[in-house]
Amino acid sequence: MTTTDTRITNLWSRVGDLFVYALGQVRTIKKTYPGIMHLLIFWGVIIQILGTAIKIMQMGLFVPFTWPLFSQNVYLWYELIMDLAGVAILLGALMAIIRRWIIKPHFMKNSWDDWYALLLLALIPIVGFITEGLRLYSLQPEWANWSPIGNFTAGLISNISISSRTADLIHPYFFFGHICLGLIFAGSIPFTKLRHMIFTPIHIFQKSDRPAGELVAIEEIMDAEVLGASAINEFSSLDLLSFDACLQCGRCEEVCPASISGMSYSPRELLLILREDMAGSLISPENGSDPSLNSDLFKEEFLWSCTTCGHCLDVCPAFIRPPEQVIDIRRAQVLMTGDVPQTVGETLRNFERQGNPWGMPAPSRFSWADGLDVRVISPGEKVDVLFYVGCAGAFDDRNKKVTKAFIEILTKLNIDYGVLGEAEMCCGETSRRMGNEYLFQVAAEENISLLSEYQFNKIVTVCPHGLNTFRNEYPKFGGNFQVLHASEFLAEIIKKNDFKTSSGRDYGRLTFHDSCYLGRYNNVYTQPRELLNNANLSPLEMEASQEKSFCCGGGGGAMWLETDADTRINQHRLQHALDVNADTITTACPFCLIMFDDALRSKGLTEQIQVFDLVEILNQSLE
């Protein structure tokens, strides 16, 4: 079972998040139309609830006292605000109906409770305005203009030629009908998608403050009885809360590279299935109900299509983390049943036997340096920069060129650096994302123990996956290091006049691809572009770039998986580069480099488009 984090820390920060994200709807309004729509409904309902509570306290209902709040002027403003709140709800509901019925975004699915909620939200203000119109028509007070919609409705009523007496007689029926609709609305909250009104703010307040790039560790893994989640009751309490907090808005599905590329996986569908499992087994269990997860979740084309790119984390208004639920299910598959795709099993066996997912012999880890004068440091020896090469840079032929280019840069800049050589080990990132938490924890402990034998000021790596592991995941296990990506490190020390006027190579129209683990998980966006601009190579921006970047398809262990040719994420990403007529694609991640190379070969475009790592381009451009 995954543990629930200790979350009630930084209390005032959490209260601030509640105001910003739950009341302020900051993430929701990032998309204009649905943002305005939801803001109108949300604040309209909040104001109506508060206004009704104030009215009840004036009447002495349900409380043993009255609260004489209203003076004449205050009451007039109260009428105006309540009228405007009703208009807001009605407009928001109409916008939602238009969106679902006419606009129909491809990622949005309609269910009975969507229409039920919208119908209820539209009926409540409509009946309320009719009730107010009957009252104003009957009483004809001098202040009627302070209730503009009610007064307008009173005018409509006068046009149908009913008497004030008749209006006075039928007013109570509409009044009690309005109350009944309000009670139905409140009573419907636990049983419909309206539940998110309660659970989303709670989840925002309770949300984990772990870095987005850090997964929850299985504590005391050697003694744990349950590893991962194969049943709904094996998820943490925060996970279960998140299933009810989901708005079902589809924003996660809208940006999910697997969904966009035509795969069956969708973070929204994942949460809906888990919510159904929770409802059937934990909330309203039937006799003999089975807590086991829906079998659809374990299908290879579903469970293993998530690349853990993290884009769904960035856009979710409720701060839900679907990749973490995916990893939990993978953990159960890998560690409890062993029922995994063949390529996953082979990759994890490579790690067990050779200590790396490539399955290359450990002694060959330093073969990339053959013929080079590379400084290998010994335990106790001190350097400023420890260059962590990583498995891709050590074993993959294409990425060995990147490794050599970075060594050349360090030499040109006279950096006091060293490498571990054959002593270097895999960081364990791939095994963790594939679900083998045990192999990861062993790798983490061994790496931390190894690195404690050396003296250095900072670790620098060209691999964002290694960067994320050292920076965000090793601290949990006692490994606290200053870790920088090569682009961060070089942006600090290279000045503009260090570059040649021309690199001598024609890159043509050059675009930069943001790696998910460099940008989204570690917020490195400006440094690569700053370096390219300083090298007189201003990059073009693809449609999906920086915070909105589209995954290359290699994360989450997906680089080792076989996927259908029609749904390959890397080919979808390549198309973004083709759309800006790029001649050169620049990456800052070994996985991205491999995935673009593969996509170019598949499309037969290796002669037309070239792909380089940022380090290779900078090395060519440096004096």
Write structural notes for this entry.
The chain is mostly helical and 623 residues long. The strands form 2 sheets. A 4-stranded parallel beta sheet has the order 2-1-3-4. Strands 5-6-7 form a 3-stranded parallel beta sheet. The mean pLDDT is 92. Helix content is 53%, strand content 5%. The protein has helices at 11-23, 32-59, 72-103, 112-139, 148-159, 164-188, 196-206, 237-245, 251-255, 257-260, 267-283, 300-303, 311-315, 322-337, 342-354, 390-395, 397-412, 429-433, 437-451, 464-473, 486-493, 516-520, 526-534, 569-579, 590-603, 614-621, and strands at 382-388, 417-418, 455-461, 483-485, 510-512, 584-587, 610-613. Strand 3 (455-461), helix 20 and strand 4 (483-485) form a beta-alpha-beta unit. Helix 4 packs across helix 5 and helix 7 (196-206) packs across helix 8 (237-245).
Annotation keywords:
single chain, 7 strands, 5% strand, mainly alpha, 623 residues, three-stranded parallel beta sheet
Outline: elongated
Strand fraction band?
under 5%
Distance between the termini: 55 Å
Supply Rg: 30 Å
Low-confidence stretches: none
The overall average pLDDT, rounded, is: 92
Number of helices: 26
Task: Tell me the strand order in the biggest sheet.
Answer: 2-1-3-4
- How many β-strand runs? 7
Let me know the largest β-sheet.
4 strands, parallel
Helix proportion of residues, in percent? 40-55%
State the secondary-structure class. mainly alpha
